[in-house]
Design goal:
Shape: globular
Helix content: 25-40%
Radius of gyration: 20 Å
Largest sheet: 6 strands, mixed
Number of helices: 9
Low-confidence stretches: none
Strand order of the largest sheet: 6-8-5-9-7-10
CATH class of the largest domain: Alpha Beta
Number of strands: 10
CATH superfamily of the largest domain: PurM-like C-terminal domain
Strand content: 15-25%
CATH topology of the largest domain: Phosphoribosyl-aminoimidazole Synthetase, Chain A, domain 2
Order of helices and strands: HEHEHEEEHHEHEHHEHEE
Mean pLDDT: 91
Protein backbone atom coordinates (compact mmCIF):
# COMPACT_ATOMS: atom_id res chain seq x y z
CA UNK A 1 0.00 0.00 0.00
CA UNK A 2 1.47 3.35 -0.98
CA UNK A 3 0.61 6.99 -1.55
CA UNK A 4 -2.12 7.33 1.08
CA UNK A 5 -5.90 7.63 0.80
CA UNK A 6 -6.09 10.42 -1.76
CA UNK A 7 -3.58 8.79 -4.08
CA UNK A 8 -5.56 5.53 -3.74
CA UNK A 9 -8.76 7.33 -4.79
CA UNK A 10 -6.98 9.21 -7.60
CA UNK A 11 -5.58 6.07 -9.21
CA UNK A 12 -8.43 3.59 -8.85
CA UNK A 13 -11.72 5.45 -8.43
CA UNK A 14 -11.56 8.96 -9.88
CA UNK A 15 -11.66 7.43 -13.41
CA UNK A 16 -15.02 5.89 -12.45
CA UNK A 17 -16.58 9.15 -11.26
CA UNK A 18 -19.52 10.50 -13.24
CA UNK A 19 -21.55 13.67 -13.47
CA UNK A 20 -22.43 14.98 -10.04
CA UNK A 21 -19.39 13.39 -8.38
CA UNK A 22 -17.44 16.67 -8.59
CA UNK A 23 -14.33 14.70 -9.38
CA UNK A 24 -14.50 12.99 -5.96
CA UNK A 25 -12.84 16.14 -4.58
CA UNK A 26 -15.68 17.51 -2.42
CA UNK A 27 -17.45 16.41 0.74
CA UNK A 28 -20.57 15.26 -1.10
CA UNK A 29 -22.00 14.73 -4.58
CA UNK A 30 -24.89 16.46 -6.34
CA UNK A 31 -27.76 14.64 -8.03
CA UNK A 32 -30.75 16.19 -9.78
CA UNK A 33 -34.15 14.51 -9.39
CA UNK A 34 -36.38 14.75 -12.48
CA UNK A 35 -39.92 15.99 -11.93
CA UNK A 36 -42.40 13.19 -11.33
CA UNK A 37 -39.71 10.74 -10.23
CA UNK A 38 -38.64 9.39 -6.84
CA UNK A 39 -35.22 8.25 -5.71
CA UNK A 40 -34.70 4.78 -4.29
CA UNK A 41 -31.65 4.03 -2.17
CA UNK A 42 -30.35 0.69 -0.98
CA UNK A 43 -27.12 -0.39 0.71
CA UNK A 44 -25.37 -3.76 0.58
CA UNK A 45 -22.20 -4.91 2.32
CA UNK A 46 -19.85 -7.72 1.32
CA UNK A 47 -17.35 -9.08 3.85
CA UNK A 48 -14.36 -11.20 2.89
CA UNK A 49 -14.83 -14.90 3.78
CA UNK A 50 -18.53 -14.28 4.49
CA UNK A 51 -19.99 -13.05 1.20
CA UNK A 52 -17.09 -13.93 -1.09
CA UNK A 53 -14.13 -16.25 -0.83
CA UNK A 54 -10.64 -14.84 -0.26
CA UNK A 55 -9.38 -16.29 -3.57
CA UNK A 56 -12.27 -14.97 -5.68
CA UNK A 57 -10.93 -12.71 -8.44
CA UNK A 58 -11.04 -9.02 -7.52
CA UNK A 59 -12.87 -8.19 -10.74
CA UNK A 60 -15.75 -10.52 -9.87
CA UNK A 61 -15.90 -9.26 -6.27
CA UNK A 62 -16.45 -5.68 -7.40
CA UNK A 63 -18.97 -6.68 -10.05
CA UNK A 64 -20.90 -8.80 -7.55
CA UNK A 65 -20.93 -5.89 -5.09
CA UNK A 66 -22.49 -3.61 -7.69
CA UNK A 67 -24.87 -6.22 -9.09
CA UNK A 68 -26.46 -7.22 -5.78
CA UNK A 69 -27.44 -3.57 -5.33
CA UNK A 70 -28.64 -3.31 -8.92
CA UNK A 71 -30.88 -6.27 -8.11
CA UNK A 72 -32.57 -4.17 -5.41
CA UNK A 73 -33.36 -1.58 -8.09
CA UNK A 74 -34.80 -4.27 -10.34
CA UNK A 75 -36.99 -5.62 -7.53
CA UNK A 76 -38.59 -2.20 -7.02
CA UNK A 77 -39.05 -1.52 -10.72
CA UNK A 78 -36.45 1.27 -10.61
CA UNK A 79 -33.75 2.40 -13.03
CA UNK A 80 -30.26 2.63 -11.46
CA UNK A 81 -28.38 5.90 -11.84
CA UNK A 82 -25.34 6.03 -9.56
CA UNK A 83 -23.71 4.59 -6.47
CA UNK A 84 -21.57 5.38 -3.43
CA UNK A 85 -18.73 3.06 -2.43
CA UNK A 86 -17.11 2.50 0.98
CA UNK A 87 -13.96 0.41 1.39
CA UNK A 88 -12.31 -0.81 4.61
CA UNK A 89 -8.95 -2.01 3.28
CA UNK A 90 -6.58 -4.41 5.06
CA UNK A 91 -2.89 -4.11 4.26
CA UNK A 92 -2.86 -7.53 2.56
CA UNK A 93 -4.84 -6.24 -0.45
CA UNK A 94 -2.30 -4.58 -2.73
CA UNK A 95 -2.62 -2.10 -5.57
CA UNK A 96 -2.69 -4.86 -8.18
CA UNK A 97 -5.79 -6.32 -6.52
CA UNK A 98 -7.54 -2.96 -6.52
CA UNK A 99 -6.58 -2.28 -10.13
CA UNK A 100 -8.53 -5.43 -11.04
CA UNK A 101 -11.33 -4.43 -8.65
CA UNK A 102 -11.61 -1.04 -10.35
CA UNK A 103 -11.56 -2.61 -13.82
CA UNK A 104 -14.52 -4.80 -12.83
CA UNK A 105 -16.49 -1.76 -11.75
CA UNK A 106 -15.64 0.06 -14.97
CA UNK A 107 -16.93 -2.91 -16.99
CA UNK A 108 -20.28 -3.03 -15.19
CA UNK A 109 -20.68 0.75 -15.07
CA UNK A 110 -20.65 0.69 -18.87
CA UNK A 111 -22.88 -2.39 -19.01
CA UNK A 112 -25.58 -1.02 -16.68
CA UNK A 113 -25.14 2.73 -17.34
CA UNK A 114 -24.36 3.76 -13.76
CA UNK A 115 -21.62 5.97 -12.33
CA UNK A 116 -19.67 6.40 -9.11
CA UNK A 117 -20.61 9.51 -7.09
CA UNK A 118 -18.35 9.16 -4.05
CA UNK A 119 -17.86 7.22 -0.85
CA UNK A 120 -15.23 6.65 1.82
CA UNK A 121 -12.03 4.67 2.32
CA UNK A 122 -10.33 3.56 5.50
CA UNK A 123 -7.78 1.04 6.70
CA UNK A 124 -8.65 -1.94 8.89
CA UNK A 125 -6.94 -4.76 10.75
CA UNK A 126 -9.89 -7.01 10.02
CA UNK A 127 -11.16 -8.55 6.77
CA UNK A 128 -11.85 -6.55 3.63
CA UNK A 129 -15.27 -4.89 3.98
CA UNK A 130 -17.02 -3.38 0.96
CA UNK A 131 -20.24 -1.38 1.15
CA UNK A 132 -22.16 0.04 -1.80
CA UNK A 133 -25.21 2.32 -1.80
CA UNK A 134 -27.19 2.29 -5.03
CA UNK A 135 -29.26 5.28 -6.13
CA UNK A 136 -32.06 4.68 -8.60
CA UNK A 137 -35.20 6.39 -9.79
CA UNK A 138 -38.76 5.32 -10.42
CA UNK A 139 -41.93 7.08 -11.50
CA UNK A 140 -43.60 8.62 -8.46
CA UNK A 141 -45.91 6.12 -6.76
CA UNK A 142 -44.81 3.18 -8.95
CA UNK A 143 -42.16 1.55 -6.77
CA UNK A 144 -42.85 -2.10 -5.92
CA UNK A 145 -42.81 -2.79 -2.17
CA UNK A 146 -43.08 -5.91 -0.04
CA UNK A 147 -46.45 -5.07 1.47
CA UNK A 148 -49.15 -5.37 -1.19
CA UNK A 149 -49.75 -9.10 -1.64
CA UNK A 150 -53.41 -10.18 -1.44
CA UNK A 151 -55.03 -13.60 -0.92
CA UNK A 152 -55.66 -15.11 -4.34
CA UNK A 153 -52.52 -13.59 -5.91
CA UNK A 154 -50.09 -15.92 -7.61
CA UNK A 155 -46.45 -16.11 -6.54
CA UNK A 156 -43.90 -15.79 -9.38
CA UNK A 157 -40.14 -16.03 -9.68
CA UNK A 158 -37.82 -15.20 -12.56
CA UNK A 159 -34.98 -17.35 -13.86
CA UNK A 160 -33.89 -20.40 -11.92
CA UNK A 161 -33.46 -20.98 -8.20
CA UNK A 162 -30.54 -22.61 -6.39
CA UNK A 163 -27.76 -21.75 -8.81
CA UNK A 164 -26.08 -19.33 -6.40
CA UNK A 165 -26.18 -21.71 -3.45
CA UNK A 166 -24.93 -24.62 -5.54
CA UNK A 167 -22.26 -22.36 -7.03
CA UNK A 168 -20.89 -21.85 -3.53
CA UNK A 169 -20.99 -25.62 -2.97
CA UNK A 170 -19.03 -26.01 -6.20
CA UNK A 171 -16.45 -23.45 -5.07
CA UNK A 172 -16.05 -25.39 -1.82
CA UNK A 173 -15.52 -28.61 -3.78
CA UNK A 174 -18.72 -30.28 -2.56
CA UNK A 175 -20.39 -30.69 -5.96
CA UNK A 176 -19.06 -30.91 -9.54
CA UNK A 177 -19.28 -27.93 -11.89
CA UNK A 178 -17.77 -29.13 -15.14
CA UNK A 179 -18.90 -26.20 -17.29
CA UNK A 180 -18.38 -23.52 -14.61
CA UNK A 181 -22.00 -22.38 -14.85
CA UNK A 182 -22.76 -22.66 -11.14
CA UNK A 183 -19.55 -20.90 -10.10
CA UNK A 184 -20.38 -18.12 -12.53
CA UNK A 185 -23.86 -17.70 -11.09
CA UNK A 186 -22.41 -17.46 -7.57
CA UNK A 187 -19.70 -14.99 -8.49
CA UNK A 188 -21.68 -12.84 -10.92
CA UNK A 189 -25.40 -12.41 -10.21
CA UNK A 190 -27.61 -11.24 -13.07
CA UNK A 191 -29.72 -8.29 -11.88
CA UNK A 192 -33.08 -8.52 -13.65
CA UNK A 193 -33.20 -4.90 -14.76
CA UNK A 194 -35.65 -4.22 -17.57
CA UNK A 195 -38.22 -6.79 -16.47
CA UNK A 196 -41.27 -4.52 -15.89
CA UNK A 197 -42.29 -5.91 -12.51
CA UNK A 198 -43.83 -2.54 -11.61
CA UNK A 199 -46.49 -3.05 -14.30
CA UNK A 200 -48.21 -5.97 -12.58
CA UNK A 201 -46.71 -6.88 -9.18
CA UNK A 202 -48.76 -6.37 -6.03
CA UNK A 203 -45.62 -6.99 -3.93
CA UNK A 204 -42.08 -8.04 -4.63
CA UNK A 205 -38.40 -8.27 -3.72
CA UNK A 206 -35.30 -10.09 -4.92
CA UNK A 207 -34.17 -13.50 -3.72
CA UNK A 208 -30.97 -12.88 -1.79
CA UNK A 209 -31.37 -14.84 1.46
CA UNK A 210 -33.15 -17.90 0.07
CA UNK A 211 -36.48 -18.42 -1.67
CA UNK A 212 -38.37 -19.68 1.40
CA UNK A 213 -37.06 -17.01 3.75
CA UNK A 214 -37.65 -14.18 1.28
CA UNK A 215 -41.18 -15.42 0.57
CA UNK A 216 -41.60 -15.20 4.33
CA UNK A 217 -40.62 -11.54 4.23
CA UNK A 218 -43.31 -10.88 1.61
CA UNK A 219 -45.87 -12.80 3.68
CA UNK A 220 -45.00 -10.95 6.88
CA UNK A 221 -44.96 -7.46 5.39
CA UNK A 222 -48.23 -8.07 3.53
CA UNK A 223 -50.01 -9.77 6.45
CA UNK A 224 -50.76 -12.93 4.46
CA UNK A 225 -49.66 -16.54 4.09
CA UNK A 226 -47.84 -17.96 1.08
CA UNK A 227 -47.76 -21.51 -0.29
CA UNK A 228 -44.80 -22.56 -2.45
CA UNK A 229 -45.21 -25.59 -4.71
CA UNK A 230 -41.79 -27.24 -4.52
CA UNK A 231 -42.15 -29.10 -7.81
CA UNK A 232 -42.96 -25.86 -9.66
CA UNK A 233 -39.76 -24.07 -8.57
CA UNK A 234 -37.59 -23.68 -11.71
CA UNK A 235 -34.17 -25.31 -11.52
CA UNK A 236 -31.38 -25.09 -14.07
CA UNK A 237 -30.26 -28.26 -15.90
CA UNK A 238 -26.97 -28.04 -13.98
CA UNK A 239 -28.77 -28.10 -10.63
CA UNK A 240 -31.15 -30.87 -11.71
CA UNK A 241 -28.15 -32.98 -12.68
CA UNK A 242 -26.93 -32.88 -9.08
CA UNK A 243 -30.01 -34.76 -7.86
CA UNK A 244 -32.91 -34.20 -5.50
CA UNK A 245 -30.76 -34.42 -2.38
CA UNK A 246 -29.87 -30.77 -2.89
CA UNK A 247 -33.45 -29.48 -3.13
CA UNK A 248 -33.51 -28.02 0.38
CA UNK A 249 -30.23 -26.17 -0.30
CA UNK A 250 -31.75 -24.72 -3.45
CA UNK A 251 -34.94 -23.60 -1.69
CA UNK A 252 -33.17 -22.06 1.28
CA UNK A 253 -29.76 -21.01 -0.06
CA UNK A 254 -29.08 -17.40 -0.97
CA UNK A 255 -27.37 -15.52 -3.80
CA UNK A 256 -29.92 -16.13 -6.56
CA UNK A 257 -30.90 -12.46 -7.05
CA UNK A 258 -33.98 -13.40 -9.03
CA UNK A 259 -37.20 -11.42 -8.77
CA UNK A 260 -39.86 -12.84 -6.44
CA UNK A 261 -43.25 -11.18 -6.74
CA UNK A 262 -46.97 -11.62 -6.30
CA UNK A 263 -49.59 -10.55 -8.82
CA UNK A 264 -53.34 -10.93 -9.35
CA UNK A 265 -54.43 -13.95 -11.37
CA UNK A 266 -55.67 -11.68 -14.17
CA UNK A 267 -52.13 -10.32 -14.66
CA UNK A 268 -50.79 -13.75 -15.71
CA UNK A 269 -51.04 -13.09 -19.45
CA UNK A 270 -49.25 -9.75 -19.10
CA UNK A 271 -46.48 -11.41 -17.11
CA UNK A 272 -46.00 -14.11 -19.74
CA UNK A 273 -45.91 -11.47 -22.46
CA UNK A 274 -43.29 -9.49 -20.53
CA UNK A 275 -41.34 -12.71 -20.12
CA UNK A 276 -41.33 -13.33 -23.87
CA UNK A 277 -40.39 -9.75 -24.69
CA UNK A 278 -37.55 -9.60 -22.17
CA UNK A 279 -36.23 -13.10 -22.80
CA UNK A 280 -36.42 -13.78 -19.07
CA UNK A 281 -38.54 -16.71 -17.97
CA UNK A 282 -41.04 -16.02 -15.19
CA UNK A 283 -42.62 -19.02 -13.47
CA UNK A 284 -45.67 -19.24 -11.17
CA UNK A 285 -44.60 -21.23 -8.11
CA UNK A 286 -47.40 -20.77 -5.60
CA UNK A 287 -50.25 -18.73 -4.20
CA UNK A 288 -51.03 -16.14 -1.56
CA UNK A 289 -53.61 -17.19 1.04
CA UNK A 290 -55.25 -15.94 4.19
CA UNK A 291 -53.18 -16.53 7.30
CA UNK A 292 -49.47 -16.14 7.90
CA UNK A 293 -46.13 -17.77 7.21
CA UNK A 294 -44.84 -19.86 4.34
CA UNK A 295 -45.69 -23.48 3.57
CA UNK A 296 -43.64 -25.52 1.10
CA UNK A 297 -45.84 -28.22 -0.44
CA UNK A 298 -44.97 -31.35 -2.41
CA UNK A 299 -46.90 -32.65 -5.43
CA UNK A 300 -49.49 -34.24 -3.16
CA UNK A 301 -50.13 -30.96 -1.35
CA UNK A 302 -48.38 -32.08 1.85
CA UNK A 303 -45.89 -29.99 3.80
CA UNK A 304 -42.20 -30.39 2.96
CA UNK A 305 -40.26 -30.29 6.21
CA UNK A 306 -37.16 -28.09 6.00
CA UNK A 307 -34.35 -27.98 8.55
CA UNK A 308 -33.65 -24.32 7.80
CA UNK A 309 -35.42 -21.39 6.13
CA UNK A 310 -32.56 -19.37 4.67
CA UNK A 311 -29.45 -17.26 5.23
CA UNK A 312 -29.15 -15.61 8.64
CA UNK A 313 -27.13 -12.37 8.84
CA UNK A 314 -26.49 -12.72 12.58
Amino acid sequence: MSGGEFDFIERFFRPLAGEGALGLRDDAALLDVPEGRQLILSTDTLVEAVHFLPDDPAETVSRKLLRVSLSDCAAMGAVPRAYLLNISRPSGFDDLWFASFSAGLAHDQALYDVRLLGGDTTGTRGPLVLSLTIIGEVARGRAVSRCGAKPGDRLWVTGTIGDGAMGLMARLGEVPDADGYLTGRYRLPQPRLGFPVQNFASAGMDVSDGLVQDAGHLAHESGVGIDIEAEAVPLSPQVRALGGAWLETCLTGGDDYELLFTAPEEASDAIRQASRQSGLEATPIGHVREGSGVRVLNGAGRDVNLTRKGWQHF
